[in-house]
Structure formats: C-alpha cells, structure tokens
TrEMBL record:
Protein location: Secreted
Protein name: Peroxidase
Chain residues that bind Ca(2+) 1: 65, 68, 70, 72, 74, 86
Binding locations of heme b: 192
Length: 312
C-alpha cells in the first residue's frame, strides 16, 4: 500500500518540476529539429558580418527578455492596443534592436521545422552565437522553452531592468532578485565589453560624476555628448576583458558600470577580471547559462509562436 501511494506522489512532483522549467535540455530538438543550431549559427553569422554591433544587440535583447517575467520571448511582442508591452519600457524604447534578425532566423527555422521551435529558444541560441562571432565564449544553451502569450506592461519591465544611473546597491539587489550573486552580476556586466550606448545614457556621468577620468570625460564633452559612444573604447566590437581594465582607470562609460569599481564590494572582482581574461570568460559563460534558466515556460504553458512579434 505504501509503495502504491508513493508512486503517484512521485509523478506529481515530476509534473510540478516540469512546470517550473527544471527539465530543459540542450538536446530538446534532437529529433524534431536536428539542424536548429546550425540554422541559427548561419543566420547570426550573416547578421554580424553585415553589422558587428548586432552581436551585442541580440545579447541585450535576450537579457532584457529574461529579466522581465523570465526567458519567454515576451520582449519580442509588438504592442496590441490598448495594451502596451515591454518594447516601450524606458530601458527598451528606442534602444533595443535586432528584432528583424530574430524574425529572419524564425522564418528559416519554420521552413525547416514548422511549428516546432519557440522564439524564446531561438533568442537564447542567437545570443550565444552573436557573442561567439565577436570572439566570446561558448556556453550550453538549455532548450525546451515555450513562448509567452502576452508581454509585461512597461511599469513591470521598468521595475525589473537595470538603469544606467543605478548605484551598486541597487544593481546587487536587482540581480539578487533573479537569483544571481554580486560576483555573477559583475561577470554579466562584462557584456558591456561590446556595443554602444546612446548619449542620454551617459550624459549625466560625463557632466556630473566625480569618479571619472578627467581626460576621458573631457573628450566626450568636447564631442557635445556624441549620439553613440562605445562602451569599451579600446575594442568595442571584440569580446574581451578590456571593459574591466577601463573601470580600473575610471573610464567606464555608464555610471552603473563604474559603480562596480568605486570603493565597493566588487572592486576585487573587477581587478581579477581585468588581469585574468580566462576567469572572466568562464564566469560569464556560467552566468549566461544560468540566466537562460530564469522562469522559462515549459510543458503546456505558453505556445510555439508562428511569428515572434505576435501571438498565434
């Protein structure tokens, strides 16, 4: 009698675990779409060849998706009036880009494997491939996510995403809420070794911050705050650890970046990464794999969208 009672309970626990995304697998599409990763890699290779910045843009798109209600491709959804979604949140509006690249990948995947692969999984794979094209590390992408059928409203997105003006305590708290340690947060911040930032994200820093190299600030002020500036001036489209070396020199472009090296708890981590590129790459890859597991929809939750910008 005891055994017959425990078996249904065990199965119930398995189902509950599956509902919380514990059973993602890198081989989820092994039989249903065996060429998935090569399709994503081919499309991302073309996209980055046309615009190297796209590798950084797709990574940011993935990050902004996962930190708002989990890795569910909700950030890709267009507004459906009267509802306004994540695309118009303050950290996303006029700055997130690469939607058309994900749409192109989805079209190629649909041609090979109709109604099989989620946009959430495509975005996760594209983020890894984009960073690989810029010389970054590889990491295992767990697969089996499903797509959200609605986006969060802008206020929810605003509350879950970092701002360029955030201080260290705010950053640590925000990332802790997603299950990341302060060190993992500092490793993930290394994504800013590639890409550009808009003037409105660093204007206050170059005209008002004290913890900034005077020559660095003066140069940007002489340009009257350029429309775009590289987050890492030395190698803006190469994934490396120079971002951390810039922080040590007080040449972080964003206030939130420089907060990682400003007499606080992450100074030693920044110093380690600035001197040890392998340590940074390994920790970044591990943190990215962990980020991909934030609250995925699995099982019967959500759907497999036919187009990434709208629900079926």
């Amino acid at each position: 009698m005891a055994f017959r009672f425990q078996l249904p309970l065990f199965l119930l626990c398995m189902l509950v675990g599956a509902a919380h995304g514990q059973f993602l697998s890198p081989n989820f599409y092994g039989s249903s779409c065996p060429n998935l990763e090569s399709i994503v890699r081919s499309e991302m290779t073309k996209a980055v060849a046309m615009d190297r910045r796209m590798g950084a843009s797709i990574l940011r798109l993935f990050f902004h998706d996962c930190f708002v209600n989990g890795c569910d491709a909700s950030v890709l959804l267009d507004d459906a009036p009267p509802f306004v979604g994540e695309k118009t949140a303050d950290p996303n509006r006029n700055s997130l880009r690469g939607y058309e690249v994900i749409d192109a990948i989805k079209a190629s995947v649909e041609a090979a494997c109709p109604a099989t692969v989620s946009c959430a999984d495509i975005l996760a794979l594209a983020a890894r491939e984009g960073i690989s094209q810029l010389g970054g590390p590889a990491w295992t992408v767990q697969l089996g996510r499903r797509d959200a059928t609605a986006a969060a409203n802008p206020s929810v997105a605003n509350a879950n995403l970092p701002f360029a003006t955030d201080n260290l305590d705010k950053l640590i708290s925000l990332f802790a809420g997603k299950g990341f340690s302060a060190q993992e947060m500092t490793a993930l911040s290394g994504a800013h070794t590639v890409g550009l930032a808009q003037c409105d994200k660093f204007r206050r820093r170059i005209f008002g911050d004290a913890d900034i190299d005077p020559g660095f600030a003066d140069d940007l002020r002489k340009q009257n705050c350029p429309s775009f500036a590289p987050l890492d001036r030395q190698s803006p489209m190469q994934f490396d650890n120079l971002y951390y070396q810039n922080l040590v020199l007080k040449k972080g472009l964003l206030h939130s970046d420089q907060e990682l090296f400003n007499g606080g708890s992450q100074d030693s981590v920044v110093m380690t990464y600035s001197m040890n590129n392998n340590a940074f790459r390994n920790d970044f890859a591990a943190a990215m794999e962990k980020m991909g597991r934030i609250r995925p929809l699995t099982g019967l939750s959500g759907e497999i969208r036919f187009k990434c910008n709208k629900v079926n």
